[in-house]
Specification:
Number of strands: 8
Radius of gyration: 16 Å
Number of domains: 1
Number of helices: 6
Shape: globular
CATH architecture: 3-Layer(aba) Sandwich
Largest sheet: 8 strands, mixed
Order of helices and strands: EHEEHEHHEHEEEH
Bound molecules: zinc ion
CATH topology: Rossmann fold
Helix content: 25-40%
Strand content: 15-25%
CATH class: Alpha Beta
């Protein structure tokens, strides 16, 4: 299956007012759901950012792996997916090949692909329509007031709202401080432009 986590989804009823776009808990929610998948079938986990349970692999290498290999028993996590898609160019053969392979690999029973992106609209429509579950996490304080700051020091609960298929109530509540122990949220993912000099 393909799971997408977003900072904003225009037109989604769960999208409300001043909600943090960065730091709304999308990478955290992605990591928690990927961890559940990893635990359930003792899969191999790879990601383009550091977590406590996965191998960290550069985004370009994950891309190659998806395109070139017959992936089995794996959980794949890609944060800032739009950066990688952009690096493949606009409507290039390479972009379509990558998306096609993501879809093909994810249709296997033992492969789950997780990604996040700031904006829903930054993800190519071909990938969006194939995303089985789209989530819009929202960050709240313990007194249930919404948080709109990226770097807020208070304690938070992440309410994981599901945009597609639509669920009215959050499907999961996450304690940010506890779930955050699964990964390093201060890491910055940089993706090289195709053909760019490093
Ligand atoms: Zn806050």
């Amino acid at each position: 299956m393909i799971y997408g986590f977003f900072g904003s989804i225009p037109g989604c009823p769960h999208q409300r007012g001043k909600q943090a776009l960065r730091g709304n808990g999308k990478t955290l929610s992605m990591t928690v759901l990927a961890y559940q998948s990893y635990l359930s079938e003792s899969k191999d986990a790879i990601s383009n950012y550091q977590t406590e349970f996965s191998r960290t692999v550069p985004t370009e290498e994950i891309g190659e792996l998806i395109i070139a290999e017959d992936i089995r028993d794996s959980v794949i996590m890609i944060t800032e997916m739009q950066l990688y898609l952009n690096s493949l160019g606009v409507n290039t053969k390479r972009l379509h090949k990558f998306i096609g392979e993501v879809v093909a690999q994810s249709r296997k029973r033992d492969v789950d692909i997780f990604y996040d992106s700031q904006r829903y609209t930054d993800i190519h429509p071909r990938l969006r329509v194939q995303t089985d579950r789209a989530f819009l996490p929202r960050k709240f304080h313990l007194d249930d007031t919404p948080c709109s700051l990226d770097r807020c020091k208070k304690e938070h609960i992440i309410k994981l709202y599901q945009h597609d298929p639509f669920e009215r109530n959050p499907i999961m509540l996450l304690r940010a401080d506890i779930a955050g122990q699964l990964y390093d949220s201060n890491e910055i993912v940089i993706c090289k432009k195709e053909g760019a000099k490093s």
